[in-house]
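User: Is it possible to get a 3D structure for a protein together with its bound compound? The compound here is FE2/S2 (inorganic) cluster. I've pasted both below.
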Amino acid sequence: MTKIEQNAKLDRIGDRLQRAVQGTLRGQRVRDLLHGVWLGHPLHPAMVQVPVGAWISAAVLDLLPGQRRAATTLVALGTAGAVPAAVAGLNDWAALARDQRRVGLVHAASNTVGLALYAGSLAARLSGRHGTGRALAYLGLSAASMGAYIGGHLAYKQGAQVSQSISELHLMSDRWQTVAELATLPQRELVTREVDEVSVILYRHGDDVTVMLERCPHQSGPLGEGEVREIDGHACVVCPWHGSTFRLNGGEVVHGPSANDQQILPTRVVDGVLQTKLP
Ligand code: FES
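Assistant: Yes, that's possible. Here is the predicted structure of the complex:
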């Protein structure tokens, strides 16, 4: 897996595919929908439940007598469900870092082989060649399982579409800590401070101050260098790296590629001093 991460030869095809995906999925709404912004959670891993569940269930039914029709139905369901899951995955993939895109490319290639084998299996079953259909389905399951293994590496080792900011909370102690004198904070401007060596951004609106983790949940971009923009009546911070946008009054993600909200910290003002602590 490390060799795949470091294999620059994959970039030629990866860069072309990235341009093709970005050129095809242009609309912000479509991209946000596929990232899972509306869900507050990446959509791709949720969508793959359909093909994974259907194909594994079909593999079990293929071992039992009298289950041809049910197995064929599940193969059809999994094959149809794999297509939108793949589109959502490609949309996430196009906004990943280069080493993640290399692994993601191999993940996508394995799953494409799996999908093609299942499409062949479905065609064989529908034409009455159930033995061939079963064999192709088991080959497809092997390819899709390899794809799932690589996808696990991409998510859990490389952190693709996993919130990059939330682990910062583990560095903070659970007590109220001084952040700034309220009177020194400018109105409606981002200010960066450190709490227990964790970088946070402050945004004052009247006497209300938002304290938010600075590290962008998408790829650790510096939100403190981002732009403040009004969206649907809410002040939002836009990440300077890939444009993920978060509400400053709650941390909800408004635009991807991040599908995760940003963490807001509780605040209080004591004798004119702004304090914050762990949520
Ligand atoms: S790091 Fe990618 S949007 Fe912030």
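The two ends are 36 Å apart (CA to CA). The mean pLDDT is 96.
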